[in-house]
């Protein structure tokens, strides 16, 4: 198994379209362009219409004036007069005046400004004639240059006004558009990223994986990462400490995989990393090694250092496999890695699926066994320093009809996962209480029987009443029963229900023992607030009594228990040397294979007969 660490999502791996500022500017400018074109067209048509109408009227007026002038003189108009008229009317292109078939004609070249030459020079012409007397006619043509000049002036004024208006509107609305763009970007970011770590969230990561799998040449690796023991940190030190761990680990993964992989926080303490062949040619072992770097150093919080480990599962990416199946395989491999201590990694193979199926079948068999009450209860005796058996601890055992004895660690875990741990605990409690009554009838006057209470049971609101009902039904008293809870299950600072339940049980007369003491996250301040009367020293400390450090630790624990007014119980006593050392330090109660292995009810009944076979130190 390799070690591990992981990375962040580079922008080229998973990108989401945000607002295009240039496109938005074009979109807002288009209405103004269309408006300018339409208004310019309307203005041009109206200006040309009225301009040519005006020129036509003026041409008729000039022609009429010429006819009247010819009539007054009674002769053809001299050429000098026509030239004078042409000078007075700058837009006069041509003029012809006739008197009795004598005509004078004068014309000049069109005078159109260079900017308007493309329009040509459409003339406005008009004729006039006399109604009486000698025949007099006049024909006048006026240039359209002034019409076009007026049109150019009007268009320039219109377009200038529209441009100024657009610029003013653009300036006044730019701030609003920028806010809208930022809002859209924030919405997109919120929909695709995890707020705590800044990594991509489950939805965005799943989309990226699906896109990667759609490629015909899809290849690469998908890594699933789950932090070990994160719940204990979250429970013991609160959400702020848990958030700090998640944020630091997320940043380390992002830095380790920056630029060539997609990293996401799937939720809780789970991370995922996508590395396609197009992004990197690294092997899965190299990816594991990178990922392990995120957990090589402790996470610091409020003066404390948390050593974080993780379980990593990897599955290969293949275009023939769906994204959902790849995720399932990586998840299965991750749980396979959890079977190993510390930071561990596993690559999916068929054996993992076989293990999952075996777990599934075993879980079904366990449910049937609990339903049929096929779970056995054995008892491990507990002795005082005089060698007297004073109590027995009830332990669940399962003999599978095909697989034989199943480890308690395995079937207890399965019961917790299946949600039937409460039913299992209820059966053990009822059997233990029944057997305690029988033992006393047979003359073995044990002071009490001890049963284990799981963390899930401590969260049940009706736990206290349920236990009371059982002992009442068996004719027992609360002092006949001792409830053992593990250290980690009662050290939660987030949930107060455990402590409240234990306090209620203690007030009702039940004895409370803290099991596996020394393996959790106890603090002295927290420990002294618990209503416990016994500390059970974990067997791992007893097994280390052959070392100076081990002896110092156990001696410290014994002293701590005495100062807190608690009875100390040594678990896992397996050698005469351990027994002698513990008795010399005043350990009140002892339990272990040397003194008595877990045994059936029938064997426990005969326990007084075994007493003479115990070490001399326990014979009083």
Kindly state the percentage of residues in helix. 40-55%
Name of the top-level CATH class of the domain at 202-348: Alpha Beta
The 3D shape can be described as: rod-shaped
Q: Tell me the major beta sheet.
A: 8 strands, mixed, barrel
Mean pLDDT: 83
Estimate what percentage of residues fall within beta strands.
Answer: 15-25%
Low-confidence stretches: 1-19
| Strand adjacency order, main sheet | 12-13-15-16-17-18-19-20
Rg from alpha-carbon coordinates: 49 Å
CATH architecture of the domain at 202-348: 2-Layer Sandwich
CATH topology of the domain at 202-348: Alpha-Beta Plaits
Count of distinct strands: 20
Domain GGDEF: 218-350
Keywords: Membrane, Transmembrane, Transmembrane helix
Protein name: Bifunctional diguanylate cyclase/phosphodiesterase
InterPro entries: Cyclic-di-GMP_PDE-like (IPR050706), EAL_dom (IPR001633), EAL_sf (IPR035919), GGDEF_dom (IPR000160), Nucleotide_cyclase (IPR029787), Rev_trsase/Diguanyl_cyclase (IPR043128)
């Amino acid at each position: 198994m390799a070690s591990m660490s992981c990375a962040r999502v580079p922008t080229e791996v998973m990108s989401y379209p945000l607002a295009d500022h240039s496109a938005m500017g074009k979109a807002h400018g288009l209405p103004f362009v269309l408006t300018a074109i339409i208004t310019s067209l309307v203005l041009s048509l109206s200006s040309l219409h009225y301009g040519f109408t005006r020129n036509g009227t003026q041409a008729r007026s000039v022609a009429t004036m010429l006819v009247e002038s010819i009539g007054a003189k009674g002769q053809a108009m001299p050429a000098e007069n026509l030239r004078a008229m042409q000078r007075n009317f700058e837009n006069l292109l041509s003029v012809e005046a006739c008197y009795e078939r004598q005509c004078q004609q004068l014309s000049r070249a069109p005078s159109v400004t260079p900017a308007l030459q493309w329009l040509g020079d459409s003339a406005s012409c008009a004729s006039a004639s006399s109604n009486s007397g000698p025949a007099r006619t006049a024909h006048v043509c006026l240039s359209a240059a002034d019409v076009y000049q007026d049109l150019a002036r009007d268009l320039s004024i219109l377009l200038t006004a529209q441009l100024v208006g657009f610029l003013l509107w653009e300036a006044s609305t730019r701030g609003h558009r920028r806010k809208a763009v930022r809002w859209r970007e924030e919405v997109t970011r919120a929909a695709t990223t995890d707020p705590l770590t800044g990594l991509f969230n489950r939805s965005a990561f799943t989309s990226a994986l699906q896109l990667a799998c759609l490629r015909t040449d899809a290849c690469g690796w998908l890594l699933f990462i789950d932090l070990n023991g994160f719940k204990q940190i979250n429970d013991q030190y609160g959400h702020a400490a848990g958030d700090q761990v998640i944020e630091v680990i997320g940043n380390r993964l992002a830095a380790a995989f920056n630029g060539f992989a997609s990293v996401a926080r799937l939720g809780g303490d789970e991370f995922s990393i996508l590395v396609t062949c197009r992004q990197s040619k690294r092997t899965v072992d190299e990816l594991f090694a990178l990922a392990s770097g995120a957990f090589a150093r402790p996470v610091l919080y409020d003066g404390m250092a948390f050593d974080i480990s993780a379980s990593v599962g990897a599955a290969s990416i293949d275009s023939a496999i769906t994204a959902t199946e790849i995720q399932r395989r990586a998840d299965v491999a991750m749980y396979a890695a959890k079977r190993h201590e510390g930071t561990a990694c596993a690559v999916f193979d068929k054996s993992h699926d076989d293990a999952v199926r075996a777990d599934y079948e075993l879980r079904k068999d366990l449910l049937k066994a609990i339903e049929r009450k096929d779970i056995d209860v054995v008892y491990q005796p507990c002795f005082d320093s005089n060698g007297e058996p004073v109590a027995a601890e009830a332990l669940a055992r399962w003999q599978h009809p095909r697989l034989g004895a199943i480890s308690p660690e395995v079937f207890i875990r399965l019961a917790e996962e299946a949600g039937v741990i409460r039913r299992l605990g209820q059966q053990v409690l009822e059997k233990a209480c029944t057997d305690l009554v029988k033992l006393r009838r047979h003359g073995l006057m044990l002071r009490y029987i001890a049963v284990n209470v799981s963390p899930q049971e401590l969260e049940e609101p009706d736990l206290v009443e349920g236990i009371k009902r059982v002992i009442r039904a068996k004719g027992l008293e609360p002092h006949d029963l001792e409830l053992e809870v593990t250290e980690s299950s009662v050290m939660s600072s987030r949930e107060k229900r455990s402590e409240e339940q234990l306090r209620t049980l203690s007030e009702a007369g039940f004895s409370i023992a803290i099991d596996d003491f020394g393996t959790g996250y106890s603090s002295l301040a927290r420990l002294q607030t618990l209503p416990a009367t016994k500390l059970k020293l974990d067997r791992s400390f007893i097994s280390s009594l052959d070392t100076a450090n081990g002896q110092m630790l156990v001696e410290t624990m014994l002293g701590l228990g005495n100062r807190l007014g608690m009875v100390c119980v040594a678990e896992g006593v397996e050698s005469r040397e351990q027994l002698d050392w513990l008795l010399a330090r005043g350990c009140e109660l002892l339990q272990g294979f040397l003194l008595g292995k877990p045994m059936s009810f029938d064997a426990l009944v005969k326990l007084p007969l075994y007493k003479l076979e115990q070490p001399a130190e326990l014979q009083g």
